[in-house]
User: Fold Citrate lyase subunit beta from Salinivirga cyanobacteriivorans.
Amino acid sequence: MSEGYAGNKGPKIKSDCHVTLKQQPSGGINIQLKSKVEKLYGDQIKKVATATLNKLGIEHCEVLIEDSGALDWVIAARIEAAVKQFSDTSETYIPDLKPYNQYETSKERDRLSRLYLPGNNPKMMLNAGIHKPHGIILDLEDAVAPAKKHEARFVVRNALCSANFYGAERMVRINQGEMGIEDLQYIVPHNVHLILIPKVEDPEYICRLDKEVQRLEARHQIEKPVFYMPIIESALGVEKAYEIATACRNIVALAIGLEDYTADIGVKRTSTAEESLYARMRLVNAAKAAGIQPIDSVFSDVGDMEGLFENVRKSKQLGFEGMGCIHPRQIKVIHDGFAPEAKELEKSMKIVDAAIKAEEQGLGVVSLGTKMIDPPVVKRHKKQIDRAVRMGLIDKNWQETYNQE
Assistant:
């Protein structure tokens, strides 16, 4: 007799379930359900469980589902994870892709905030998007216990199809090394936008990963690009930052992870971040040289909003274009910190307005008062205005209003 277990249970567990499955030689499928909502949703829970088992080729088994308010896609993920602890079936039970998740991403989109969520905790995935992070990371690496990594893959896969991300970029942080390569089959065919690659030290690993992504894209006829964000977390990674940033064309951002970096160089991470200044500047320079976004590390004290804002301000001054976060309350502070200040925005509007007028007049030189404005300066200020428009700070037709004032 074969057995499998998956999921979470206990008085503090919500929006999840625990499945105990025992395969039998005969007798059909027998489901025992323990749920406070059995009278309302018991039939639906059993229907999802039966459909999943049928798709996986399980004809005879005893199933105990201890439900704590799990949605259909969570129940299916838990049952499949339990089955595949003892079965080598290649069949899968994939939920339908929801209409609200059928939006694309782009290389240039803002990534000011990216919210980390544990890949084995579906409760946190359900409403994360309402806080409006630019990206939601379903984490298969550090946030998942080693014994739970197998079943987390099914939760993350189903969440990419069924959880509402409310317009956020759908991101997954894979595991390191070979396990990370294995993770790809669970996410690339199933609606992921961007893959975070942890602890990168060798650009060849990214090339190998990219080849596997391309193989999966061809096999599943995926035409939309899957982007990458390597994370630099060691001294060696810092020294190879530019090589990593240019390892393949689908890299759109380069991030730094300061907890592991400071541990690697043998120093304590401090609130001033003086110990990591060289690494952060090296990463910013490499990213800018490669034409991609430099993304700063998380700020780990979720209760210190003033400290976070100061950290964001310094990050912006160094040239970073985003930061990780581990709690929804950090998102607005990060967005506000990276947003153009009023004086900055006014200056940008003057410069871009002058550039537009110069172009309309056929002038090859942009001037503002007695100062000549170089094209790279115009480009930088235009980028700032575009971000302000996306953030709702100014109207997209700002120039019409600006010229009337």
Summary: The CA atoms of residues 304 and 330 lie 9 Å apart. The chain has three domains: 3-84, 99-338, 342-403. The chain has a mean pLDDT of 93. The first strand starts at residue 3 and ends at 7.
